[in-house]
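User: My collaborator sent over this chain with a note saying "see what the structure looks like." That's all I know about it. Can you take a look?
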Amino acid sequence: MTSLPRGRAANGHHRRAVAALGAVSAGLLVLSACDKPTPLATITVGKSSVSSETDCYNDGKAVSSADLAKCLKAKDIKSIKVDPDDTVRFGVDPKIADNGWTILMNGQPLTESSKKTYRTIPGSVFFNAQYGASGNSTLVSIKEGDKTVTGLWSFKLKKDA
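Assistant: Without extra context I'll predict from the sequence alone. Here is the result:
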């Protein structure tokens, strides 16, 4: 047989339940005020990977040209070493893939737009003058969107010969 609290004991039980419900509601309210993280783009070379979120993301809406220019000149761009004999693997969040994405090298399209979440390119391409490379590092960006840019993730590839 189960005994339920009666009288003053029942009121105390009810107050604790209301207090717990209030705490959970307040926690959810605080969480809903947080910014959603942007989708990730990842570059993998051999056993090394680097992933990045971006400040140049507008959740499916066009990013302004001024904001894109700032992102391309950002100082905190993540880098990864690339041996020209290695394969460079690009992976994007499905949300990016759904909108189509293009790999840019020094701001110029290197690939056609794709809706796949994964692509590979030979490492030698990123240090070949024929593709616009110069020196021992190259700025590579992942541009989300076909007609308008809705996101931009940038990485620096450093030659590791």
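A starting point for your reply to your collaborator: The chain is about 25% helix and 30% strand.
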